[in-house]
Amino acid sequence: MFGHYFYHEKIRKCVSIFGRLFNDIYVVRKTSSGNSISTVKVPLSYAPRRKYLDRIRENSDLYEDQKVAIKLPRMSFEITNFAYDTSRQLTKTSTFNTTGSSISSKQKFFPPVPYTINFQLNAYAKSQDDALQIVEQILPYFNPQYTLTIKPFDEVYPDFKEDIPIIIQGLSFQDDFEGSMDTRRTIVYALDFEMKVNFHGPISESSIIRQADTNIFNINDQSDGYIETIRTTPNPLGVSPDSDYGFDIDIIDSA
């Protein structure tokens, strides 16, 4: 069973589409009179939360124009958990079939295995207003679900599409403003999400059945009971699966 190489890049696609959801978030800074003075696009990257917090605290003031790798506001996200989802499991014996690489073959794959991938999106800011701007640009789209459509087999089956729901699970807040007034303040909003994902196995190719033989027997005959064989074939024989065709029925053998 194992050893048949396949790679549909499903996890990689899920990480990519999750990140693209939050890739165009901006923070607008205004004066006390309400006039806009600057618009900042919030950078986003895949990284653990603890790594960013440690790196942010290395510099005393992230607003100053210094040569630092990280400035605020900023966002990061990461996968926090994988879990099997029994509520979405389909019948394991059914298969999905489609046209193969030639008219004499077909391709098939078994039902996918449902999993839930948990993501955590972290928004880091130095001021509460920056953090709230980020959060309020995200929450209205999740009620509590936002559904994306992907192509799980974009190279093999470009017309095959799959919906992936992303559900928000909760929002937590952390303000590390402790100590003296000149101590760094780091505001972190953590948003937890749940993504419903299906993992597909290998796609196998086999020949299309173009001949069916039916053996007829007499159940009341105490001996062999064989009467005849009926052979059914498509007409024309080399027809493609998507074309119009009929069937030829022949008796090829009889007792």
Helical percent range? 10-25%
* CATH homologous superfamily annotation of the largest domain: Myoviridae tail sheath stabiliser
Radius of gyration: 30 Å
Give the ordered list of helices and strands: HEEEHEEEEHEEEEEEE
Spans of at least 5 consecutive residues whose pLDDT stays below 50 are none
How would you portray this structure in words?
- With 255 residues, the protein is mainly β.
- It has helices at residues 10-21, 49-56, 128-136, and strands at 26-30, 36-41, 44-46, 74-84, 96-99, 105-109, 113-125, 145-150, 162-175, 187-199, 204-207, 212-217, 226-235, 246-254.
- The protein is elongated.
- The strands form four sheets. It has a six-stranded mixed sheet. It has a three-stranded antiparallel sheet with strand order 5-6-11, with no helix packed on it. It has a three-stranded antiparallel sheet with strand order 12-13-14, with no helix packed on it.
- The protein has two domains: 10-205, STM4215-like (2-Layer Sandwich); 210-254, no CATH class.
Offer a concise description of the structure:
The chain has helices at residues 10-21, 49-56, 128-136, and strands at residues 26-30, 36-41, 44-46, 74-84, 96-99, 105-109, 113-125, 145-150, 162-175, 187-199, 204-207, 212-217, 226-235, 246-254.
Write a concise keyword list for the protein shown above.
single chain, 255 residues, mainly beta, STM4215-like, six-stranded mixed β-sheet, 14 strands, 43% strand
